[in-house]
Write a structure and sequence with these properties.
Blueprint (H helix, E strand, L loop, with lengths): L1 H9 L6 H24 L7 H28 L26 H14 L4 H20 L5 H21 L5 H7 L3
Helix pairs in contact: 2-4, 2-5, 3-4, 3-6, 3-7, 4-5, 4-6, 5-6
Length: 180
């Protein structure tokens, strides 16, 4: 089923220039755009301290999620779908293993952090972007659908753990969110 869904999403790759351009832009600029949007929350008007706290949670979840991915990659060596003949690659090949997707981890860590806060509308926007980034990673041929699902789980788990451990209003949080 993993290969079938991956093949279905990747199937149109290389056949429609407009769709390819959108997916390539999402895969290249989606995570940097999310990071920029998180950084801009530092200067948000209204609920500034809460927005800053949420931005810190998102940043920590992002880093921890990617760190967990590196540990997983030490033990799981999954071949990329284009190497297995499952997908047609329309970007440069990756040098590392396929599972889990760092793009999915990063984008879902950010989205989950905002969805767990009182900034749910912004979280919904981040979730839509994260989902589009994940689909783009399969579309361009570099990941199986389960790779992005695994990355999303890692990102969400990191956001939950950070959200539970880094509490809003603590002395540390007040010190960090008062910077600038």
């Amino acid at each position: 089923m993993d290969q079938a869904i991956t093949g279905w999403i990747n199937g149109p790759a290389g056949e429609n220039a407009m769709l390819d351009a959108v997916m390539l832009a999402l895969t290249e600029f989606g995570v940097p755009a999310l990071i920029l949007l998180v950084v801009l929350q530092w200067w948000r008007s209204g609920e500034r301290q809460h927005a800053r706290h949420t931005a810190v949670v998102a940043g920590l979840a992002f880093l921890i999620g990617l760190g967990v991915n590196q540990l997983i990659l030490l033990f799981l060596h999954r071949m990329r779908p284009y190497d297995a003949g499952v997908s047609h690659l329309i970007i440069s090949p990756s040098a590392d293993w396929s599972f889990p997707s760092d793009h999915a981890t990063a984008s879902f860590a950010i989205a989950a952090s905002f969805l767990m806060s009182r900034l749910k509308r912004l979280g919904a926007v981040f979730l839509a972007i994260a989902t589009a980034v994940c689909i783009s990673r399969v579309y361009v041929g570099t990941h199986y659908i389960s790779d992005v699902a695994g990355g999303a789980v890692t990102g969400i788990a990191a956001a939950v753990v950070v959200g539970l451990l880094y509490r809003e209003g603590t002395r540390l949080d007040r010190a960090v969110t008062s910077i600038l």
